[in-house]
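Dear U.,

For the methods section draft, I wanted the exact inputs and outputs in one place so we can describe them consistently. I've listed the two proteins in the order they'll appear in the manuscript figures. Please don't edit the token lines directly; just add comments below if something needs changing.

First protein:
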Amino acid sequence: MTRPVRVLVVDDSATMRSLIAAILRREPQIEVVGEAADAQEARAKIKALDPDVLTLDIEMPGMNGLDFLDKIMALRPMPVVIVSAMTEKGAAATVRALAAGAFDCFPKPASIAAIREDTVLAQIVLAAARGPARASRPATRAAIGAVASPGAAAAGRYIIGIGASTGGVETLLEVIGGFPVDCPPTVIVQHMPAMFTASFADRLDRFCPPKVAEAVSGTILRPGHVYLAPGGRQHLEVVGASAPRIRLYEGETVSGHRPSVDVMFRSLARLGRPAVGILLTGMGADGAQGLLEMRRAGMRTIGQDEATSVVYGMPGVARDLGAVEHQLPVHRVAQVAMELAV
């Protein structure tokens, strides 16, 4: 859009509202049009101000952020960025909000100095304004329905690697929800703050047929299991061709991220076992080069298509590089992945 992105900041803390607004006002393409302390005030200001994007706190007096988000997505779908406390309770609620249709999340900072130096929130808000608003699509095991198993032999040979970023929570619920209970061992790198990945792994485990857990270094990969890289702390790679296992290690960011999808894909490219690489919605280019290395190594690759991506960044760059063998809408990713893993 040519005019500035209009943002309404919703948080029960006056201090936090001021800090968030100050961050956003540093970006010339953003105009903070108002602030609200609770859902009731936010509802009135949405009607009066018609913002393009909402930043939303989870824990607020009266109607909490989750209930308010549900109403927004049902009655007036619009891009919502969750700004959440880095606590176990806050992380679990944020993952629920992302699954319910929120665009992305931003962790509340540990200090005022940290938030004043941050530029990521403005980038998320700008991406939210460009992306589609999404209505809630709650996932359940019964509603998703797993595709056919590739068979025990194939599940034992193949490894599936998946990378995702913005929009990945809802997308991964749909993709992994379509995996059979005895799927090939699967590793996932989802860009997400450190506190949030354990809650996300728990949510995937509750709603998807395979067993899903946060990855632990040294774990031997097993069919029917999905391993989610811990957020923000370490890179994940798969090592050991005869008995593949997870290796987590500290290191500098790669392609702007830690964990990096590129690191995970490159480890699969050099592992010496058949694999399927899947690159889903997300900002930036992380995973594109790694997926290209997988394809050059003779492995199968899938990229999410533009129409179903919340942000067609990572899979779009991969397509332009020639890394994508199959470009698919999200509802076909699980099926085709199982067909390729034979």
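Second protein (the one for the lower panel):
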Amino acid sequence: MRKLKTSRQPEILDAALAIADERGLEALSMRAVAERVGVTPMALYGYFRNKDELLDGLVGRLLDRLAPDDPGQTWQERLGAIAWATRRLAREHPSVFPLLLLRTSATPDGVQVVDQLYQALLDAGVPEADVPRVERLVSTFVMGFALSEVSGRFSDASRDIRLSRGADAPAHRRLAEHLTPDDWDAEFAADLADLMRIIRPV
């Protein structure tokens, strides 16, 4: 077994992410991560005191990938960049993505992306007292949409369920041709545009 150096925290989190991607979150343990990295489980405790801290670090690692590359963009462009990056992240790591809905970001990386969301909303003219609430509204929509896609709720199979479940319901029959979109990308873009208008009406 080899010793970990101070720069190995990213390696630990990458190993945790790989395990969760391959075998699901239920397979993630300090022992499994230690085996993947090639150290004893005790060696990990200098970095993460327990599995909860490891999961917090994993959330921060994922959130760090959502930060816009160009801080000089308009507030709409910054919010849009984070939203589309969130959707990509869900597709790349479907087993791990639910953690973003289950755990509050507590690491510097996690706080940074939320702070960028706050700043975009401030730049949009949202009153300071309303910024946290509006951020939760936007984040919950984006993460919920992304999770619905990777879980199968938004899928071709769900189209048949939506059509069949309302065969005897009048509103369902009336809306039959509109119940499931042909293009989920277009729906996501339209939903984001609606949110932007709520945040700052044109």
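Candidate sentences for the figure legend, describing the second protein: The first helix runs from residue 9 to 23. The two ends are 61 Å apart (CA to CA).

Thanks,
Y.
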